[in-house]
Amino acid sequence: MKKIKHKHLKINKKTPAEPLFPEPWRNVPWGKEDLQEVKKQLNEMKIPHLRVLVYGPVGSGKSSFINSVSSIFRNRICSPALANANNDENSFTKKYKTIRIQVDNSENSPSLLFNDIMGLEDGTKRGVSVEDVKLVLEGHMKDDYKFNPVSPLSTDDPHYNPTPSEEDKVHVLVWVCSANSAESNDSVAKKMRDIRETASDKGIPQFAVLTKIDEACAETEKDLKNVYRSKCVKEKMTHFSSTFGIPLNCTFPVKNYSDEIELENDVDCLILSILKKIIHFGSDFISDTVQEQKTE
Ligand SMILES: Nc1nc2c(ncn2[C@@H]2O[C@H](COP(=O)(O)OP(=O)(O)OP(=O)(O)O)[C@@H](O)[C@H]2O)c(=O)[nH]1
Ligand SMILES: [Mg+2]
């Protein structure tokens, strides 16, 4: 009898990998009103202002992050830090600006101050210079200074503050990076590490905010509550954490307000969960600095 040779059919059994973990690996109190808690934290601070500097590559969402926080406090969409509508190669933010977010309308209300700066760019003499970011950290730059990538702020410039107070100095440094961008650029990462080193020497607490998670992950775009179940977002966070050296527990994913015209509870909750950490660490830093000055 003739043997029938069965052709071995190769069946592709590979099913698409499950994009979500069964359970979230970090808890976000969705639906819980955290704004009051954040306001309480700010009211308990030892100085009237907490100054937060956001820095990062061009177009990563720095101005949008500040606008998102501001919108949550004002309970309506607002954009005190102008964000870019296009995907430009060069930084849209050209001037140094402090955005004040007050806890309430009373005269002595404490406030969150966000410093918006030009983006970091690849190569020398492009984008904000490392020297300028260091001057901002130390409180030497005055509002409305127009960044010049070719030469940093000089001591004889009218925008140079020779005697910064404790409130002029930065209390928390936030690295803002897009989850949707191509591989991180070596020259930008080098500049970032240089700035980070100066901040670390001063003991300034540091965070990383990973923006545009809606663009980077379809499951998160569908439902923001999937953010800590998304394998893709976790992979990106782990990658960014190891590339830039900011621990995973100080790395937070966000979706900024970009094309929305109304506030959304999930967007608020995610941003507030980060803000609580920023204020916690910032307040600790301020208390420690006040303590050190007392013992000096
Ligand atoms: N979908 C989405 N878009 C975002 C998000 N964050 C920012 N964007 C958009 O990204 C673009 C750049 O945002 P900006 O806030 O201007 O970025 P930037 O870092 O301040 O940019 P430069 O000032 O040019 O360095 C804008 O069109 C924003 O609407 C986000 O989380 N999701
Ligand atoms: Mg900007």
TrEMBL record:
Gene3D superfamilies: P-loop containing nucleotide triphosphate hydrolases (3.40.50.300). InterPro entries: P-loop_NTPase. It comes from the Eukaryota. SUPFAM superfamilies: P-loop containing nucleoside triphosphate hydrolases. CDD domains: Ras_like_GTPase (cd00882). One of its GO terms (biological process) is immune response. This is Interferon-induced protein 44-like. It comes from Betta splendens (Siamese fighting fish).
